[in-house]
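hiii, so i know i said id send this last week but things got crazy w the move. better late than never?? heres the sequnce for the chain we talked about at the cafe, plus the structure i predicted for it. fair warning i was half asleep when i ran it
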Amino acid sequence: MLVIGIAGGTGSGKTTVVRKIIESLPAGEVTVIPQDCYYNDNPHIPLEVRLKMNYDEPASIEWSLLTRHLDQLRRGETVEMPTYDFITCSRLKETITLHPTEVVVVEGILVLTDKSLREMMDVRVFVDADADERLIRVIERDCIERNRTPQMVIDRYRETLKPMHELYIEPSKRYADLIVPQGGNNTVAIRLLTDYIRSLLK
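okay and structure toks below
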């Protein structure tokens, strides 16, 4: 099994890179583990408080569960991945069954910040993009998918996203084996990455 970690700022194009990796390999050979599914479950905290919590720092993730699930997949076991609702900021009852495959991609803004998880990866990738491009993508996504107004997204960007990016996400770039500039638009870098993955599988 080949474990690939893909990190980068919010809106950098990580999802596009993951999709192109999946498209470059035979169907059914890639399992994706989104970091976002492993946010801490805080049902005891009122909704109005949960909505204001910081979800862009490492402490917001249940790393122990994520690393345990990845370890189980590496041992050939099936796991039940949690799911998360971004509107209510809470974990759902439904889970997603993950089966071990040739390639496992662990994707999320903070996946290179956790040492234990990082050491389980065979390839570490950081998807880079200009701050203004990332902000535009975050506004488009959050307004459509998460019921937020543009002003709500901009306020969150100033108060949380930008400082957390500078404090945690950008510094994690130093752990990457490959940096993909221009995000998901860099077809050359993505082709080099997918060619390298295929060579390792051979």
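btw Helices lie at 14-24, 47-50, 63-74, 115-118, 131-145, 150-169, 187-201. thought thatd interest u
miss u guys!!
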